[in-house]
């Protein structure tokens, strides 16, 4: 049994340190065609977080998958798209830095704060879950593709947040069960969740997910009260 007398008071101190974390985030920012035409209108914005394979310092890597790939191919998204790059090849997203970037973009452009949509794939999908947990009052819709998060986080997400989850059953990088268990927990608590399952598909379920008919119309139809 450990008693207080076992810890000499001179070895135990109380202290405080203010820490500052700096992050350099490169990003793409897309404006729909009518952004410049109606200077009084506020626009929805999709915050997209890429997977681990696109991390690093070459912004062109983002064009390999998801909405940045679609933008490079000329897809006319009906809203603004903010796609930052995680500069660390082997680190998780710094979600607080991402939110600082989002706030900066919102401060300098005509973004509707009630129509911020969040999506991510793989490591970015995991970060999207994390953002929905830590900032539950910021997003109007959440679309997660083959991401993962601790199931207990489910109860921390805004219960009014519409969620759409995508995952392939043969995913060997992030097991299908990660989405299956999270969706089950959310549904049990009464959340509005749609779950698209790709039978026989591996980790690259984002190829189909971001081509899903109706996904972007679904996003546009969502708005926070």
Automatic annotation (TrEMBL):
InterPro entries: AB_hydrolase_fold, Plant_Biomass_Hydrol_Est, PLipase/COase/thioEstase. GO terms for molecular function: hydrolase activity. Coiled coil: none annotated. Keywords: Hydrolase, Signal. This is Hydrolase. The keyword Lyase does not apply. It comes from the Bacteria. Residues 96-209 form the Phospholipase/carboxylesterase/thioesterase domain. PANTHER family: BLL1128 PROTEIN, UNNAMED PRODUCT-RELATED.
């Amino acid at each position: 049994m450990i008693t207080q007398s076992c810890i000499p008071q001179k070895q135990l101190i109380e202290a405080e340190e203010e820490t500052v974390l700096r992050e350099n985030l490169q990003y793409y920012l897309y404006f729909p065609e009518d952004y410049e035409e109606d200077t009084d209108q506020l626009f929805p914005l999709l915050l997209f977080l890429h997977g681990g394979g696109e991390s690093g310092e070459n912004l062109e890597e983002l064009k390999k998958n998801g909405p940045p790939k679609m933008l490079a191919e000329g897809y006319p998204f009906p809203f603004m798209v903010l796609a930052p790059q995680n500069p660390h090849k082997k680190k998780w997203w710094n979600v607080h830095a991402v939110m600082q970037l989002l706030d900066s973009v919102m401060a300098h452009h005509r973004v509707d704060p009630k129509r911020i949509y969040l999506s991510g794939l793989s490591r970015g999908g995991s970060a999207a879950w994390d953002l929905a947990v830590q900032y539950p009052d910021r997003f109007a819709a959440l679309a997660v593709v083959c991401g993962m998060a601790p199931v207990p986080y489910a109860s921390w997400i805004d219960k009014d947040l519409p969620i759409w989850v995508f995952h392939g059953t043969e995913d060997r990088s992030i097991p299908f069960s990660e989405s299956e268990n999270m969706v089950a927990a959310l549904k049990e608590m009464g959340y509005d969740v749609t779950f698209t399952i790709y039978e026989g598909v591996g980790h690259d379920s984002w190829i189909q997910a971001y081509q899903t008919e109706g996904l972007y119309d679904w996003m546009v139809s969502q708005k926070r009260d």
